[in-house]
Specification:
Layout lengths: L1 E10 L2 E7 L3 E6 L6 H13 L19 E8 L4 E8 L6 E4 L2 E2 L12 E4 L4 H5 L2 H15 L3 H22 L8 H48 L5 E6 L15 H29 L10 E6 L2 E2 H4 L2 H20 L6 E5 L7 H11 L4 E6 L12 E6 L2 E4 L6
Helix pairs in contact: 3-5, 4-5, 5-6, 5-8
The protein binds adenosine-5'-triphosphate (ATP) and magnesium ion (MG).
């Protein structure tokens, strides 16, 4: 698939911009702070309903404006779509698909699929486990949009169960036996909810990691061209023994796996209940799981060099791209400022790997950093305006 047009109103630094896009490579270049990333951030938002830079929408709305609008025309093999998103700070977004308002914004997920590489990706390797869980969940939703509901469901159950644990307030208090029993019975119900919702998410992630693994290993070798291997493994917070290895997704047994995972989660919840009541937090479940990353059998976080960490982050994105395009249309590939971070060899290898994608949107402060194999359309970005065809001389 590819974008044919992107129009923004009061999004970040842009009061108004409207740009026609074509398949192949498009390079946005210009000095720091002129609005290159703002553009591709909007594209990513259409695909994921979230920014890759900030957790909340407020910074996406132009200073002084009340709301922002993103319009994107998507051309796919089987459909053309116009997505319109109105971002309202503090309120739900309004999303229209082909001019029809959607009941839930998340119904738009899947219309545009993107894989975005950005300097922030280093946090996938060096950051907290939450970064890696979000990576898995975002990819899961991109692969199968129904996981957006699974994820929302789990988040809701987790919030409510945590609130219950906190309000139980049994820590050090002398509540009577009756009150304690009421809390325990309510907790039993929430344990069941949490096990059911959590198992669905957990099994989805485990399948995903199994599918992703060979792609990550290959992509790491391709980018880094150095001693490997890089490996990934899903670690449940609810078990201490080695995780079960799964065969590729098989519908016939998916239900059984979810059931087994739900039982395991329930047992784990029962095991930690006392400490949960003491601490007022949910101690096991997908929100505490980890995606283990290793380079040459050492944990990437804390051991890998800067270059190795970058290569691994790139490998995770490239692997996502491979997985998303397998048997389907290419997602739109976005490379935000990644070439400046790489040495010449890695630049060339990365460029060669992505050059054939249906549409590649590249940003760079210095156009010369972008390898020649990624020649294509060019825009010069200055003060939130776009000048087509500029920057060729660089
Ligand atoms: N909500 C907003 N309202 C107005 N301006 C904003 C808003 N959010 C960001 N900006 C401005 O947008 C600019 C940053 O744009 P962007 O991140 O796209 O730059 P860039 O061209 O990618 O730069 P670099 O080369 O450094 O990555 C900053 O000058 C910032 O002040
Ligand atoms: Mg930028």
């Amino acid at each position: 698939m590819h974008l044919t047009r992107l129009a923004l109103a009061d999004f970040r630094s842009y009061s108004s911009v409207d740009v026609a896009l074509a398949p192949g490579v498009t390079l946005f270049s210009g000095p720091n702070g002129e609005g290159k990333t703002n553009l591709v951030e909007a594209v990513g938002y259409v695909a994921t309903l979230a920014s890759h830079r900030v957790a909340h929408d407020a910074p996406l709305i132009r200073q002084g404006a009340k709301r922002a609008i993103i319009r994107a025309n998507v051309h796919g093999a089987t459909h053309d779509a116009l997505v319109e998103i109105e971002l309202n700070p503090g309120r739900a977004n309004r999303v229209r698909l082909n001019r029809v308002p959607l009941a839930k914004p998340r119904e738009v997920l899947g219309v545009l699929r993107t894989v975005l590489f950005a300097p922030e990706d280093l946090a996938l390797v060096k950051g907290d486990p939450g970064e890696r869980r979000r990576f898995l969940d975002d990819l899961l939703v991109a692969m199968a949009p129904r996981y957006a509901a699974v994820r929302a469901d789990y988040d809701r159950v987790l919030r409510q169960r945590t609130a219950l644990l906190k309000s139980a307030g049994l820590k050090g208090s002398n509540r009577n036996i009756q009150a304690r029993e009421t809390v325990m019975n309510t907790l039993d119900v929430w344990d069941a909810h949490m096990a059911r919702a959590g198992a669905e998410l957990l099994v989805g992630r485990e399948h995903l990691v199994t599918a992703l693994r060979p792609h990550v290993e290959r992509a790491y070798a391709a980018v880094a061209g150095e001693r490997g291997p890089a490996t990934i493994e899903y670690k449940r917070s609810s078990v201490t023994d080695a995780p079960a290895e799964f065969a590729p997704l098989d519908e016939g047994t998916h239900g059984e796996r979810v059931k087994a995972a739900a039982e395991a989660l329930r047992a784990a919840l029962a095991d930690v209940r006392e400490s949960e009541l003491d601490r007022g937090v949910c101690l096991v479940g997908p929100h505490r799981d980890e995606l283990d990353l290793k380079v040459r059998a050492l944990p990437a976080r804390g051991y890998a060099s800067h270059g190795e960490s970058w290569s691994l982050a790139l490998a995770l994105r490239l692997a996502s791209f491979d997985l998303l395009r397998a048997g389907r249309e290419d997602p739109v590939l976005i490379l935000d400022d990644v070439f400046a971070e790489l040495d010449a060899g890695r630049r060339d290898r990365l460029a060669a790997l992505v050059a054939a994608a249906e549409q590649v949107l590249v940003t760079a402060a210095v156009p010369a950093d972008v390898p020649p194999v990624l020649a294509g359309a060019r825009f010069s970005v200055t003060g939130a305006a776009l000048i087509a065809g500029a920057g060729d001389a660089a």
